[in-house]
């Protein structure tokens, strides 16, 4: 599978409270992150955040203009922090994005290339947002992709179900349990 990184998309305080069954999701994700660390897989957290005054948000960007009006997701605020149940450890990478895709306008691509990572395992929220955009862009960049179907989620479960069929065209779909079972502990 090449050099692999586990991407954890938008599992931050300002986003995950919208999920039903949050605690079981976070417990499963925490276990998967722990297993990835034990197998020496790089953990990369990608969060959404903006500078004070929101210079990154155009009034034409309907996805984010609400955040600027509400005053949410300012870098350094509680809403931009990774949820404590899956908090980063020393050596993990945190990338802040200003758009839906983890790649657009971030240093994710150069980070992956610098670390010689060519395989991504994707988790996070939301299947209809960050996961979809990131999978599509990573596929266009010829990354080997695995989507952990039980660790990608959406506030609209029907979207998640349909999008799994889309992801399947560009990524291997597996459960976190099956993926962890295939890891070699170091």
From TrEMBL:
It comes from the Eukaryota. InterPro entries: Isochorismatase-like_dom, Isochorismatase-like_hydrls, Isochorismatase-like_sf. Pfam families: Isochorismatase (PF00857). Keywords: Hydrolase. The keyword DNA-binding does not apply. It comes from Capronia epimyces CBS 606.96. Gene3D superfamilies: Isochorismatase-like. PANTHER family: ISOCHORISMATASE HYDROLASE, PEROXYUREIDOACRYLATE/UREIDOACRYLATE AMIDOHYDROLASE-RELATED. CDD domains: cysteine_hydrolases. This is Isochorismatase-like domain-containing protein. Residues 4-169 form the Isochorismatase-like domain. One of its GO terms (molecular function) is hydrolase activity. Belongs to the isochorismatase family.
């Amino acid at each position: 599978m090449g050099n692999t990184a586990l991407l954890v998309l938008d599992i931050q305080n300002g986003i995950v409270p919208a999920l039903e069954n949050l605690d079981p999701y976070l417990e499963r994700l925490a276990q998967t992150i722990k297993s990835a660390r034990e197998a020496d897989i790089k953990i990369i957290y990608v969060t959404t955040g903006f500078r004070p005054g929101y210079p990154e948000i155009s009034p034409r960007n309907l996805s984010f203009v609400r955040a600027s009006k509400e005053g949410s997701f300012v870098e350094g605020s509680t809403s931009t922090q990774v949820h404590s149940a899956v908090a980063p450890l020393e050596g993990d990478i945190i990338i802040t994005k200003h758009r839906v895709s983890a790649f657009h306008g971030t240093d994710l691509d150069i980070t992956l290339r610098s670390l010689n990572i060519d395989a991504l395992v994707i988790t996070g929220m939301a299947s209809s947002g960050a996961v979809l955009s990131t999978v599509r862009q990573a596929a266009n960049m010829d990354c080997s992709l695995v989507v952990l179907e039980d660790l990608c989620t959406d506030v609209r479960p029907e979207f998640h179900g349909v999008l799994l069929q889309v992801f399947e065209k560009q990524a291997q779909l597996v459960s976190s349990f099956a993926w962890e079972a295939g890891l070699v502990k170091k």
